[in-house]
Amino acid sequence: MEEESCIDGLKCYAENTYSDELMSIMLTEDNRQHYSVTIDTMSLFESNVTFAHILFEYPERALKISDQAFHQAALSICKAHKRISNMIE
């Protein structure tokens, strides 16, 4: 349950803080390329203390959680963008 809560919290954080960056990554031509997002860890820790504890105690688990959360955020942003602009999938 703690993990689901962290994923939800990080998803909201990603949507609110990095939506423009995630959208620009999704709009790139080469979908086989991997792109990074540089995260301000201080603001992340302030927004999600539980995740900060997980990161320090279980870094591998924290990476999986953040990967899932940012992936879900990207999908959510993409769906919202498609609804707003009537984009074709």
From TrEMBL:
Source superkingdom: Eukaryota
Any one Gene Ontology molecular-function term assigned to this protein's record: helicase activity
InterPro entries, alphabetized: MCM9_N (IPR058768)
Organism: Nephila pilipes
ATP-binding found in the keyword field: yes
Keyword annotations: ATP-binding, Helicase, Hydrolase, Nucleotide-binding
Pfam families: MCM9_N
The protein, known as: DNA helicase MCM9
Gene that produces this protein: Mcm9_1
Annotated MCM9 N-terminal domain residues: 3-82
